[in-house]
């Protein structure tokens, strides 16, 4: 496929899971990609995998909680590739726990600072470039605020993602007249490095095999398996592309059918 040819995509929060897969999917479909994260070594490893030549990939060590770093990400895209056609923010802080363990809410504040304010900050900094390109924003949300998993309460994270959904709808309305589309992809359980670690840890604690834990988690899913982080990345790439040119203000759930809307 070549749905993203001649487009420049910024991907914030690139780690070994969804961020990496989104960079790979965007590159495969023809885009130049600017990948940002806090760790240079991790970024360099993903960049080498995406494009060993370095011609269509650029890296920026950055915190999206920093206004200056968000400017650096945007400026890198403009300096290297001349445009910002799309933004995907995979950066996320996802603490566990409920209200009774919230303490002074400092963890809530830190979570909102990354998940909500960081996302909004990067979009706002890149807004002039997005308007020029009539670009696309894809927010990465999470199914947990629609369906709290009984085994893993994470109220601060879910609250921040719920706020992100509200922001997505309002941004789609605000920026639509400028030709900018704003959507979100909402994974459920997503098979990748972090979930694999959770499954293995749970299996060790219970003294059972990883297959048993996976089977229990996926029993509610019509496909009887989790969507992979690569499959979620393909959904993101679709919403970035001109094939989705008539879609804005929407939530695309990628969850193997666990919840149906």
Short summary of the structure?
The protein is of the alpha/beta class and 261 residues long. It is 46% helix and 15% strand.
What order do the helices and strands come in, and which of them pair?
Layout: E1 8-12, H1 18-28, E2 32-37, H2 40-50, E3 57-61, H3 67-81, E4 86-89, H4 106-125, H5 127-133, E5 136-140, H6 155-175, E6 181-187, E7 190-191, H7 193-206, H8 210-218, E8 227-228, H9 229-240, E9 251-254
Parallel strand pairs: 1-2, 1-4, 2-3, 4-5, 5-6, 6-9, 7-8
Helix pairs in contact: 1-9, 4-6, 7-8
Features:
9 helices, 261 residues, globular, alpha/beta, two-stranded parallel ribbon
Please tell me about this protein's structure.
By secondary structure, this protein is an alpha/beta fold. Helices cover 46% and strands 15% of the residues. The strands form two sheets. Strands 3-2-1-4-5-6-9 form a seven-stranded parallel beta sheet, with helices on both faces. Strands 7-8 form a two-stranded parallel sheet. Helix 1 (18-28) links the parallel strand 1 and strand 2 (32-37). Helix 1 packs across helix 9 (229-240). It starts with 7 loop residues before the first strand and ends in a 7-residue tail after the last strand.
Briefly note the structural class of the backbone: alpha/beta
Alpha-carbon distance between the two ends? 28 Å
CATH architecture title of the largest domain: 3-Layer(aba) Sandwich
**Fourth-level CATH superfamily of the largest domain:** NAD(P)-binding Rossmann-like Domain
CATH class of the largest domain: Alpha Beta
Low-confidence stretches: none
> Mind telling me the C-alpha Rg?
18 Å
Order of helices and strands: EHEHEHEHHEHEEHHEHE
Could you give a short account of the major beta sheet? 7 strands, parallel
How would you sum up the global shape? globular
Q: What fraction of residues sit in β-strands?
A: 15-25%
* Strand numbers in spatial order across the main sheet: 3-2-1-4-5-6-9
Could you tell me the mean pLDDT? 93
Total helix count? 9
Number of domains: 2
